[in-house]
Structures are given as C-alpha cells and as structure tokens.
Amino acid sequence: FAGYRACKKCRPMELSGTHPDWVKKLLEKIDSSTEKKIRDGELRAMGVQPEKARRYFMKNYGMTFHAYQRSRRLGNALMNIREGSKIDDVIFDNGYDSHSGFRDAFSKQFGKPPGRSAGTECIVTSLYQSRLGPMIIGAASKGVCLIEFSDRRMLEYQMKTLRKRFNASIVPGSNQHTEQAKLELDEYFTGNLKSFKTPLIYPGTDFQVKVWENLKKIPYGKTVSYIELAKKAGFKGASRAVGTANGMNRIAIILPCHRVVNKDGRLGGYGGGLWRKQWLLELERSKS
Q1: Catalytic position from the list 7, 10, 145, 257
Q2: b/e map of 34-63 (b: 16 or more CB within 10 Å)?
Q3: Does the annotation count 7 as an active-site position?
C-alpha cells in the first residue's frame, strides 16, 4: 500500500470483490508467519507461478509480492520495537538474517534506524471486503485514519495526505483499530449496528476538522443538506466549501459523509460513487 494504486478495471456492481483462493492462501501464510519469507520455489510448490503473483500484487497493491512481504515484515518490526522488544529479537523474529540488512531496510522504509524509532509513527493498511466492494482500512497507533473504497480516484492523493499529516510510512498490516473497524463494519453492513465505537484520528485544517466533527453528529437513517451542515458547523453561507471538506473526508461510513445531500433531496456527490451512496442510505432507512 505504500505505493497503492486503485485498479482501473474495477467493476463496481460486482459486490463481492474478493481475492482468488490462491491469493487468500498467500496472505494467510504471510500473516501467520511474519518471520518466514516465501520465496519463488515455495510459490511454485504451492502451485503459484512467481510471475503471476508479481502481476497480481502490482495490479492490486502497487508493489510486487516480495515487496509486499518485506513491507509487512518491517511494519511488524516497528510495532515490536514500539512495544519494547529487543532489537536482536525483532531482527530474527521478522525474517532477517543480519543486523546490517535489517538496519538498511528499516532505515529506508521509515527514515531512521531501528535504535531511534521507538516513537516513530506508522500507518498500517489492510484490505476489507465489504458488501459494496473492497475497501482500504488504515490505522495509526491512536485510531483509524482511513476507510476508503479501493476504486476511488482520490485514494492515491489521500495516501499522500496521510503520509504528510502523520509524518509516517504506510505499510501493509493490521492493529487493534483496523480489526475493530472490520468487525463493526461487518455488523453495520448487515444492519445490526448503528453507532461505531472504533477510535478515529483525522488531522486536517481547522475548517475541515470542524466539518468532520459535525458529520459524526448526523443520526443514523437521517440526512442533512450541505446548507444545514454549514450552519451546524458554524459556517453559514459556506455550503460549497463545506461540500469540499465533506468530499475530503478520509473515513467513509464511520464519518458519514454519505448522509449529506442537496437541499432538494437529490443525492449530490459521493467519492465512492452515487450507487454506493444510494445503497447506504437505503440500508439505514430500512433499519431505522
């Protein structure tokens, strides 16, 4: 995800959007054993041609399969260091054979050597298969900072903004916040959850943050107009600017920008696509 690119051949009405079984097995193997590198020979033994894995990961993750593994291990290593693990243990627990090789790779990824990284922030990102297609969920140490449909055109820009706002690298992985978000989103999409408890963190301009704070106050199953949202946020007469801030929201669904519509009741805009906005509003109305 460090160089994530959304797939340009996405078919949004195919709601499952799941990985092929061979990719699921690879991801499960990586997650269950971060200290072990899956080399080309092992890929072939699993019935997967290395070139096929390379193409798939480049298309869907913006990096090769081996680069994905490396980023995943380094992200895990940083979390280990932040939790107080000894550097020697971190090196070998994450599949590195030497101090120098680990130090060079770590410094290149995070901009500082392992010994000076205890306070370094890192954003971990993982794929979530929603009812409306794949989503990217990203989280820092204090909460979720990204929930976005993987085919949104602004996703690459949002990733750049996150790197700048947090002064952090983005690597594949998960933490307690991404996992909580996935569980709650599962409940939301089945109509069993109306209020999220996942911690959020959304740095922005003072204007943006004020707008996003007011998004959280829009009740489940209700909508407000851009004009109403501007008034509630204390920016009466600035509905266009409020609409722009609404569109810059990086945390879809939990910060419910889909609940903002035109004053005449028409849907207005939605970065994830109007068909998704319609689906979300209909779900909430049916359960209210």
Answers
A1: 257
A2: beebbeeeebeeeebebeebbebbbebbbb
A3: no
